Amino acid sequence: MNPSDSVNVPTSAITVRQLCYSWPTGAQVLKSCSLAVPQGEFWMLLGTNGSGKSTLLRLLAGLLASQSGEIALQGRVGFVFQNPDHQLVMPSVGADVAFGLVEDQLSLTEVRQRVVDALSAVKLQELQRRPIYALSGGQKQRIAIAGALARQCQVLLFDEPTALLDPDSQLDLVSQVRSLVKSRGITALWVTHRLNELDYSDGAFLLSGGRVVAAGDPEPLKQRLMQQIDT
């Protein structure tokens, strides 16, 4: 075959092959689960309760240790929890964004610049000195994202980040994440139960019984998930 005739296969920033995971009780959560998220794209992970979505995300983030199978991630990984109060640990916005940079051994000037750049990216630069407790839920989630951007994470994982937000804040957050993915070449995998959020994604995976049973265009997966919920 002439090289010019070959199909360009996109590079995957997140690759999972035949991943299995069971709880200490013996209950199997993931069963030979496989997926691949193309670099620079925004994909969502769907499934009913108990399908293994959050467990898969925690395995990708290294919060759980995989038992068998393969996980490959291209670049530093950032994780955004459903409840931002579980990951915002410092008293002020700027201090929290800077907190994750300690291990990078940067100069004070570099740290300050990273914080400013990250807060600008999520449109919260004016809140740098604001106490964390004075933020709304949506603002807290954006600060969590800013922390990952400051660390220059290339892969972002979101575990139902809009679950605790009001409807307007939900769509504002998902829209902003899509914009960041496209403007910065970041790769994102987003767990959701909200079907309207799929409209912002490049593609989606449907998880059922611990396996990916469908992947690709979000619209048919949306219809399939609705059928699962109705049955």
TrEMBL record:
Domain ABC transporter per the UniProt entry, residue ranges: 14-229
Keyword Acetylation: no
Classification via SUPFAM superfamilies: P-loop containing nucleoside triphosphate hydrolases
An annotated GO cellular component: membrane
SMART domains: AAA (SM00382)
Pfam name, any one: ABC_tran
Keywords annotated in UniProt: ATP-binding, Nucleotide-binding, Transport
GO molecular function: ATP binding; ATP hydrolysis activity; transmembrane transporter activity
Name of the protein described by the UniProt record: Putative ABC transporter
Taxonomy of the source species: Bacteria, Bacillati, Cyanobacteriota, Cyanophyceae, Oscillatoriophycideae
